[in-house]
């Protein structure tokens, strides 16, 4: 009897062990009936870890998320519980009844399959049947917002766009990436660096949310009228509660892929008023101070001094030209050196810009530098203001006197006229004959020189020929010289127009166009930056050279709307010449 009891206990333990070791692999769907505008979640769950998971082909659905993998491993009363899940999010392509076929996985050398699942897709519905799924919860609890500081600015008035991602307390975000960056056409823009994503608390539509600031951008409109700011688009993974809890009472979260957008914004840019607009207004908008200073006011001739024209304050400092220095013709003035000490934050541009002229007087005397005026549009009073610097007198103490120098020069041009007593003696009454007999050409120095010249020229011709062959064999050097000549050829017109902004940049853009048309055989209708970049990259041109070429094209476009200095034009010309030369050397 005791033996039978022991056998029974052993049998029960063996059956329990076999049952606990049974492998489960099954497909679970969030709903079997849904509208064509709804999403479906399907989970492939297993109670043991496996390899070589092969999902079914979702031919009648679009995979909008996944696969997401989650693993649960716990011990309860000494008993291990393991679960691994592959999750997909599907959008039906059309109405009808569809079958999701079997998925397979290999566990301990055995192949396991799920049962097929039938899904009924109906017409679009206003609201999903039953409780909201994870995707709906994510949509209601994640919001990307573009906060614009001013939607109706003046031309060249700065404002900011701050992008914030709001997340409700019940949900979370595990990762995110920018899918589409906003483009600020017709704006001067600068992004403000964000050091770390600090989580803050705030209100969204009256409810408490957590949020992070993803991007800060300062914009200055360069055109009037309604200008569009394209949206920022993010791909994010949202963690939403499943309504279940683990053994410690903590909510179990599920991950849902989501695409969020801040939406496009329209900025209505006002033109600057024409009433009382100064004739010398150069486009400065903000709050500025203006001064003209010199390093010295007394010096000797041929010594030098520096005159500095400086504007400082808050406003569009990088987007207007400074007034020009006017001096007497007796002072030699060199091209100014332009300096910018400007920082940009959420308040806009702040700092100073200046032009420093080097002046060298040639003669002794006093030379007044006439008063210089600077006009700007004041945003606080919405009116134009003018600041005029005082006259500066340059006193040259020692050097040549301008008047005496001119008198001496005039005196030196005079010549003494002496009368000729034989004025009318133009008829010769006597002759002086000489012999015309000449020495024979043979044996002269000229004869021997002409005779020996071909023999002397032969070694010279051999040297020249060798140098030419050596030069022709230098493939790299020839390519460099050819590239430089090509750059000068296409950029010659742009160089002639240096100093004339519109003519220069039109010629520069036309030169770049013609160069690419000749080298890559592309027509005008195909001339866009994306195709240029792809063609140059396909021709094995280095990426940094391609980026420089594209940036020059963008500068040509931007120059139509912004003030450009002589220094900037020269830099763009030099950069274009260098870039064309590099492209020509690298093209294959």
UniProtKB/TrEMBL annotation:
Signal sequence range: 1-21
TM regions (residue ranges): 446-464
Keywords associated with the record: Membrane, Signal, Transmembrane, Transmembrane helix
Domain of life, source organism: Bacteria
Protein name per the record: BatD family protein
Organism, as annotated: Winogradskyella pulchriflava
């Amino acid at each position: 009897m005791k033996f039978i009891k022991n056998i029974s206990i052993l049998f029960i333990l063996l059956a329990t062990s076999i049952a606990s070791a049974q492998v489960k692999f099954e497909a679970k769907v969030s709903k079997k009936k849904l509208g064509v505008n709804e999403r479906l979640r399907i989970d492939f769950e297993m109670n043991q870890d496996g390899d070589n998971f092969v999902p079914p082909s979702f031919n009648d659905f679009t995979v909008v998320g996944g696969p997401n993998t989650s693993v649960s491993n716990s011990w309860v009363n000494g008993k291990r519980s393991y679960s691994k899940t592959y999750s997909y999010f599907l959008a039906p392509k059309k109405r009808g009844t569809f079958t999701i076929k079997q998925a397979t996985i290999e566990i301990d050398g055995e192949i396991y399959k799920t049962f097929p699942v039938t899904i009924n897709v109906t017409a679009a519905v206003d609201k999903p049947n039953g409780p909201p799924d994870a995707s709906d919860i994510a949509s209601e609890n994640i919001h990307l917002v573009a906060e614009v500081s001013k939607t109706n600015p003046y031309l060249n008035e700065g404002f900011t766009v701050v992008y914030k991602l709001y997340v409700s307390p019940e949900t979370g975000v595990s990762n995110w990436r920018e899918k589409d960056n906003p483009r600020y056409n017709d704006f001067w823009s600068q992004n403000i660096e964000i050091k770390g994503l600090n989580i803050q608390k705030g209100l969204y539509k009256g409810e408490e949310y957590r949020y992070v600031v993803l991007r800060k951008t300062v914009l200055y409109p360069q055109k009037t009228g309604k200008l569009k700011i394209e949206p920022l688009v993010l791909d994010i993974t949202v963690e939403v509660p499943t309504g279940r809890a683990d053994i410690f009472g903590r909510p179990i979260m599920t991950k849902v892929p989501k695409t969020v957008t801040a939406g496009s914004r329209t900025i209505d840019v006002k033109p600057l008023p024409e009433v009382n607009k100064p004739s010398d207004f150069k486009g400065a908008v903000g709050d500025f101070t203006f001064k003209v200073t010199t390093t010295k006011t007394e010096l000797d001739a041929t010594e030098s001094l520096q005159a500095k024209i400086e504007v400082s304050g808050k406003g569009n400092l990088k987007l207007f030209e400074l007034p020009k220095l006017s001096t007497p013709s007796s002072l030699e003035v060199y091209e100014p050196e332009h300096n910018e000490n400007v920082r940009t934050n959420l308040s806009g541009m702040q700092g100073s810009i200046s032009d420093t002229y080097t002046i060298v007087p040639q003669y002794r005397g006093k030379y007044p530098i006439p008063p210089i005026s600077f006009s700007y549009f004041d945003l606080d009073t919405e009116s134009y203001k003018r600041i005029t610097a005082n006259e500066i007198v340059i006193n040259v103490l020692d050097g040549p006197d301008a008047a005496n120098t001119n008198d001496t020069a005039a005196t030196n041009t005079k010549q003494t006229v002496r009368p000729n007593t034989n004025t009318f003696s133009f008829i010769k009454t006597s002759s002086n004959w000489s012999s015309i007999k000449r020495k024979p050409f043979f044996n002269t120095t000229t004869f021997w020189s002409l005779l020996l010249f071909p023999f002397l020229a032969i070694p010279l011709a051999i040297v020249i020929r060798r140098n030419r062959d050596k030069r022709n064999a230098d493939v790299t050097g020839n390519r460099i010289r050819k590239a430089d000549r090509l750059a000068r050829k296409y950029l010659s017109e742009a160089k002639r127009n240096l100093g004339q902004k519109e003519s220069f940049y039109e010629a520069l853009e036309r030169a770049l166009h013609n160069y690419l048309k000749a080298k890559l055989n592309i027509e005008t209708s195909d001339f866009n930056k994306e195709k240029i970049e792809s063609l140059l990259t396909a021709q094995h041109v280095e990426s940094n050279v391609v980026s420089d070429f594209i940036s020059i094209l963008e500068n040509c476009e931007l120059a139509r709307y912004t003030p450009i200095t002589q220094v900037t034009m020269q830099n763009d010309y030099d950069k274009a010449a260098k870039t064309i030369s590099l492209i020509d050397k690298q093209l294959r």
